[in-house]
Amino acid sequence: MSIVIGLTGGIATGKSTVAKMFDEEDIPVIDTDKIARDVVDKGKPAYEKIVHHFSDDILLCTGHINRKKLGKIVFKDREERETLNDIVHPEVRRVVEKQIRRNTLLDEDIIVVDVPLLFESGFDELVDYTLVVFTDTTTQLERLMSRDSIKKEDAEKRINSQMSIKEKIVMADYKIDNSMSILETKRQFKQIHNKLKKLCGDES
Ligand SMILES: CC(C)(COP(=O)(O)OP(=O)(O)OC[C@H]1O[C@@H](n2cnc3c(N)ncnc32)[C@H](O)[C@@H]1O)[C@@H](O)C(=O)NCCC(=O)NCCS
Ligand SMILES: Nc1ncnc2c1ncn2[C@@H]1O[C@H](COP(=O)(O)OP(=O)(O)OP(=O)(O)O)[C@@H](O)[C@H]1O
């Protein structure tokens, strides 16, 4: 039987970094950020709904969605963000369910779903265990500003658009503190990976 792990955290706390560690162990990772990009591709049903609501002001000259512009709108306005979530999340969920089914049929021991809004959007219903990757607030802010080349004010808006990391830590079954070096994160990852292997009945 497969066990499904919901991998989450705050924005830029290191979900992709830990997802890569699972991937390096040949564990399938379902990446919802990628799925959320695919389902809003030009001409898809969610794309049409987004353009209908936000107008063609949010399009690039190629007709694709200008993600930077849409991000600016939704990260400063809760109602607009909820509207976007209501359009995109059901589509993402359908794809995630399909990919979990496919990996279960392939008899994978562990399946990871990397989803930033795991608790906020009810994706935790689809998984057996949850794993939160967290950092302290200063590190999160610095890494986000540096990775996305954005101002402190914009980074704070993005962070505040999500459930607080403290709440996520309380809700999670497993936790990784990614405030220190990648090596230290890898050490914590290995401990959790060993526990998960035991849950699957693999004592090696
Ligand atoms: C607002 C959008 C256009 C910004 O695109 P952009 O390319 O700049 O960012 P990207 O998609 O790579 O997301 C980066 C991070 O932002 C955070 N984030 C994304 N969407 C949201 C949201 N609706 N609420 C809170 N945080 C979010 C996540 O931590 C995510 O990992 C885009 O994030 C989007 O369409 N969001 C809605 C869909 C969604 O919730 N995706 C998350 C996976 S289900
Ligand atoms: N332990 C670490 N030490 C230094 N830098 C790190 C560490 N872990 C992650 N980073 C860097 O921090 C940034 C955010 O990490 P990552 O992209 O994994 O976060 P994320 O949670 O997946 O982000 P998002 O929510 O936007 O998808 C990246 O630039 C990454 O290279």
Please give the CATH architecture.
Answer: 3-Layer(aba) Sandwich
Number of strands: 5
What is the number of independent domains?
1
Looking at the structure, what is the overall shape? globular
Profile the largest sheet. Answer: 5 strands, parallel
Radius of gyration over alpha carbons?
A: 18 Å
Number of helices: 9
CATH class: Alpha Beta
CATH topology-level fold name: Rossmann fold
Structural class: alpha/beta
- Order of H and E elements: EHEHHHHEEHHHEH
Helix content: 40-55%
User: What portion of residues belong to β-strands?
Assistant: 5-15%
Q: Assign the CATH superfamily.
A: P-loop containing nucleotide triphosphate hydrolases
Strand order of the biggest β-sheet:
2-3-1-4-5
Q: How far is the first residue's CA from the last residue's CA? A: 17 Å
Overall mean pLDDT:
96
| Low-confidence runs of at least 5 consecutive residues | none
Pfam family, one: CoaE
Family: Belongs to the CoaE family.
EC number: 2.7.1.24
Enzyme class: transferase
Structure description:
Pathway: Cofactor biosynthesis; coenzyme A biosynthesis; CoA from (R)-pantothenate: step 5/5. Belongs to the CoaE family. By secondary structure, the chain is α/β, with parallel strands linked by helices. The protein has a single domain (3-199), classed as Rossmann fold (3-Layer(aba) Sandwich), CATH 3.40.50. Helices cover 53% and strands 12% of the residues. It is built from 9 helices and 5 strands. It has a 5-stranded parallel sheet with strand order 2-3-1-4-5, sandwiched between helices. Helix 1 (15-24) packs across helix 9 (182-199) and helix 6 crosses helix 7 (152-160). The two termini are 17 Å apart. The mean pLDDT is 96. It binds dephospho coenzyme A (COD) and adenosine-5'-triphosphate. The site of adenosine-5'-triphosphate (ATP) has 16 residues, from helix 1, helix 6 and helix 9.
